[in-house]
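Let's do one together. I've listed all components of the complex below, 404 residues spread over two lines.
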Amino acid sequence: MSALFEFLLRMGDTTLILGHRLSEWCGHAPVLEEDIALANIALDLIGQTQLWLGLAGEVEGRGRTADNLAYLRDAAEFRNALIVERPNGDFGMTLMRQFLFDAWHVQQLKALTASSDARVAEIAAKALKEATYHLERSSDLVIRLGDGTDESHRRMQAALDELWPYAGELFLDDATDRALAQSGVAPPPSSLRARWDAIVQPALAQATLKPPESRFAHKGGRRGVHTEHLGYILAQMQFLQRAYPNAVW
Amino acid sequence: MSAAPYAVERIWDWLGGVPDPEIPVLSLVDLGVIRDVAWDGDTLVVTVTPTYSGCPATRVINQDIEQALRARGVEKLRLERRLSPPWTTDWISREGRDKLREYGIAPPAEAGRAVACPRCGSTRSEKISQFGSTPCKAQFRCRDCLEPFDHFKCI
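Okay, and this is what the predicted structure of the assembly comes out as:
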């Protein structure tokens, strides 16, 4: 498997699984505006997935489409970061996950606009506009709810404590990352940590939230070792293609 | 190679009559998503860029272009997607902005300018939500006439 193909799966699977998680909120969010916002962000992420996985299929050269990759691979073949498969929890948990992700996503996409692969740079420039808008919203809401009522503060702190150990995986380098960095396709993940901290730390301080001191990071998603949650997501997401192979509308 | 059956200018005119499926007051040309029209031998090539990468209207836009051009007699047609440079609201035409305002949607505000209420023109507006009924809109409220309205967000 080429490093580029692996990288495109990591990008596309991460946006796909988060997009699917957010879509689970449709019709359930605490207020109508948030319901619409979550569905819209899900839509942006799934749109980006079509671009990343579409290119992955092209690069692989075996005729697989974005849909084939999304619907016909099993959990061990997925390359998403673990943080996006975390259950939605309450609204605070969903927002905190979004904020930690968006801050990484924006930095990653900014770096990718300078990719040596023009196709990667193009997709990144398109997605960056959307991700920037997502980060504006999620950081705004994390600050409002963290520095809100006792109840909202308690929930946001609990969300941060639970999700923090899943954020570190986004910044771990492996052999694939080193190969990609060498060819100028993508930045080494570790190079984004300081820029991520520069967004996340001040926002959390303003939100009166305290990140855990430990840098312990759960890892495995990017090489196909997932938590049990991914299997349930795929069971739902892939049901139709599994039950009715090649169904189209 | 046979000659191009229609002048490119005529094709642009025809596309100017194809409405955006979600905001039908705008044509696809007003919206700025048609990036190029050219003949490749006897095949017409229309290059389209998506507004938002997940916008569900994208597929319908392609169908509408094809249908409109076939109805005018274009036989050989190819639609191409272009991602770069990414679509920006700066590409919405001046007429398009006026049409949006008349339709009740505040057009994208220029950098640093307040969003003006499309009904009473007041710039005392506030954002209710960053997202609206389509990926391209946000929800606002006018603090003078108190009406809620959609704002075509700037990207």
